[in-house]
Amino acid sequence: MQKILVPLDGSAFAERAIETARAIASLKGAAVEFITVHPPALPPSRISGAPPLDPRLDTDLRASLREYVARIETVERTRSSFPVTSAIRTGDAGEEVVAQAAEQGADLVVMTTHGRGGVERLWLGSVADRVIRSASVPVLLVRPVGAAGPVPLERIVVAVAGTDDDDRIVSALVEVSDLSRAHVTLVHVLVPSPTLAAIDTGFGPPPDEMAGLPAPDTRDREHAASRYLEWMAGPLRAGGAIVDTRVMRAGSAARAVLEVAESSRADLVAVSTAARAPLARMFMGSVSDKIARSAPCSVLVCPSQPGAKQETLL
Fold first, then answer.
1. What CATH number should be reported for the domain holding residue 71?
2. Statement to judge: residues 108 and 192 lie in one domain
3. Per-residue pLDDT, 156
4. What is the C-alpha to C-alpha distance for residues 291 and 253, in angstroms, rounded to an integer?
5. Quick one: which of 48, 110, 208, 291 has the most CB atoms within 10 Å?
6. Nearest to 28 by CA among 83, 100, 97, 105
7. Are 248 and 189 a contacting pair, CB within 8 Å?
8. pLDDT at residue 58 above 80?
9. Whole-angstrom Cα Rg for the chain
10. pTM of the model as a whole
11. How far is CA 269 from the centre of its chain?
12. Full DSSP string of 228-287
């Protein structure tokens, strides 16, 4: 790990990501860059009788944001032994964070997101949502709990998709956590996948809801998944982590992983954006989206390797 990018919006809540980024940077010897984004100036108002926009307001806002992020940088320089820089960009916040990560060669984005109850819990917020959908590097969504300080990253649940992107999850965990203090649970969920035969196209008689479901999974498939998880556990155990493996049957992979996270009081859930095939994602929503929106703890989202063939290994 060489560089960690921390987006800030001027709020104390967003700044709660700083402590976690500092802890990772100190552990791995990485640099930290803070970024804030200045929204583009509004076009002149065409509403009759509306006062003209004062361009000085936009200039003052940009100056205020620049001063803010520079102040954060200065404070962190006095507290940290690793390199610290800051940047300000103009445009859509989510797009600019992704662009800055790509241009500066960031290896990780660390940012806060809300963990809410009820219906509101379904929404991450537009910036975090755009970043995890578009970034080409892992994104650590920090959900602060309790007193100030870095969030713990010791009890970790990993959603294993059974694709060739799984090794990226392991690599990301090695980068963000101290494996010598980690207890990792690798979870693979066997889920019957509906086919087009079970999707109502609106033509002809209603489909048989069970027609598109495959026969129940065999024990051979469970054994294969268990062996695969043990293979994945090897590098984590070599790094000092305690690793458990679980193969589960469930109707929803995301729900099963979240239940494991709840029951184990996980600090972190790690998931790949390649957790579902494109067709299933179109109709059901991706596993990574559901976990990122609903997890009771912090979430590490690992993007699929650009251009990589999504081979199913299980």
1. 3.40.50.620
2. no
3. 97
4. 9
5. 110
6. 83
7. yes
8. no
9. 22
10. 0.83
11. 9
12. HHHHHHHHHHHTT-EEEEEEEE-S-HHHHHHHHHHHTT-SEEEEETTSS-HHHHHHH--H
